[in-house]
């Protein structure tokens, strides 16, 4: 037993440097003042400090802080959610403006108690952000809405720049890892998005270390590509609490680098792969050329209705070395 625990002790490459800069502190204060939730905090993301302090990106979690599902990997609390807050979309949009974000990710707890899975609030949030922040690119990360494709159409009508939906793990482990969600239903959702909006990049993510094999990882890559997914992110699963699934294995950074190379060779247009990579990691680099040009247009100070000014350089739109 002791040997097993020693083997599963977190390796050095998973240690991160905490950056509690003034920027980070002010953003955290803003979240509390606006009564907003971020998946960065709720899911205990290891990249929170980098995104908030350096990259001008953040991931907002709408529709409350209580999920109707109980996935065995996730730190977000489960229970009976509160009533919908229709003022939330405007508060999110205002916060994006105050924070000067160049890219924002909107995700949500699963709301299986709602007929549309929360799609109406999702869509209104996108519209409010676009209205107040026309130069900010927007990524959405919804649940599978239990396969309600009318709600999906409603959501896509709001015009997000990236559609993200995570399969989370390989086919064999889905039932053990994800509550209610189905592997094939997630793939079908991603394909339907591409059918609705062919020019919108689609994206999915997997956690590694739950007991999958390399062959299963490669099979999942093929499944995603067969459903026209453009972007893949791969990261190490980290156990949030002792009540969650155990980590079966820690992958070395070199293994993540190899998987990234394989993913790009297979045909993904972009891949982020590393121990601390999460679904929204470096998401600002993954928008389409059209969306990036719109962001750059406002960054250069073109006058539009909102006269939005964002201070960042062209180099912010370029992939980092090694991508």
What letter string, H or E per element, gives the SSE order? HHEHHEHEHEHEHHEHEHEH
Shape: globular
Kindly provide the radius of gyration, computed on alpha-carbon positions and rounded to a whole number of angstroms: 19 Å
Main β-sheet, in a few words? Answer: 8 strands, mixed
Distance between the termini: 40 Å
Proportion of β residues? 5-15%
Unreliable stretches covering 5 or more consecutive residues: 1-7, 302-323
Counting helices, strands and paired strands, the structural category is: alpha/beta
Number of distinct beta strands: 8
Mean pLDDT: 81
> What is the share of helical residues?
25-40%
Number of helical regions: 12
Q: Spatial order of the strands in the main sheet?
A: 1-2-3-4-5-6-7-8
Oligomer class: single chain
Give an overview in words.
The chain has 323 residues and is α/β, with parallel strands linked by helices. Helix content is 37%, strand content 12%. It contains twelve helices and eight strands. Residues 1-7 and 302-323 have low confidence and may be disordered.
């Amino acid at each position: 037993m002791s040997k097993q625990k020693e083997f599963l002790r977190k390796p050095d490459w998973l240690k991160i440097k905490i950056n509690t800069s003034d920027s980070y502190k002010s953003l955290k204060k803003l979240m509390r003042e606006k009564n907003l939730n971020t998946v960065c905090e709720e899911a205990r993301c290891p990249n929170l400090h980098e995104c908030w302090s350096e990259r001008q990106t953040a991931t907002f979690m709408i529709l409350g802080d209580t999920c109707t599902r109980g996935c065995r990997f996730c730190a977000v609390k489960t229970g009976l959610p509160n009533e919908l807050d229709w003022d939330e979309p405007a508060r999110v949009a205002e916060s994006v403006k105050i924070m000067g974000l160049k890219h924002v990710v909107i995700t949500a707890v699963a709301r299986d108690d709602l007929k549309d899975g929360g799609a109406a609030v999702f869509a209104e949030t996108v519209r409010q952000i676009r209205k107040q922040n026309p130069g900010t690119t927007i990524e959405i990360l919804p649940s599978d809405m239990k396969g309600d494709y009318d709600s999906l159409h409603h959501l896509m009508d709001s015009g997000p720049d990236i559609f993200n939906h995570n399969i989370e793990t390989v086919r064999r482990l889905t039932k053990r890892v994800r509550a209610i969600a189905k592997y094939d239903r997630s793939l079908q959702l991603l394909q339907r998005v591409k059918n609705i909006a062919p020019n919108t990049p689609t994206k999915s993510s997997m956690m590694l270390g739950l007991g999958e094999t390399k062959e299963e990882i490669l099979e999942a890559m093929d499944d995603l590509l067969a459903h026209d997914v453009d972007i893949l992110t791969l990261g190490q699963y980290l156990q949030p609490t002792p009540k969650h699934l155990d980590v079966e294995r820690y992958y070395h950074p070199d293994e993540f680098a190899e998987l990234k190379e394989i993913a790009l060779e297979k045909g993904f247009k972009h891949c982020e792969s590393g121990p601390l990579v999460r679904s929204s990691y470096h998401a600002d680099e993954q928008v389409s050329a059209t969306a990036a040009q719109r962001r750059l247009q406002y960054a250069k100070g073109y006058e539009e209705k909102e006269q939005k000014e964002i201070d960042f350089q062209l180099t912010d739109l370029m992939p980092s070395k090694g991508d």
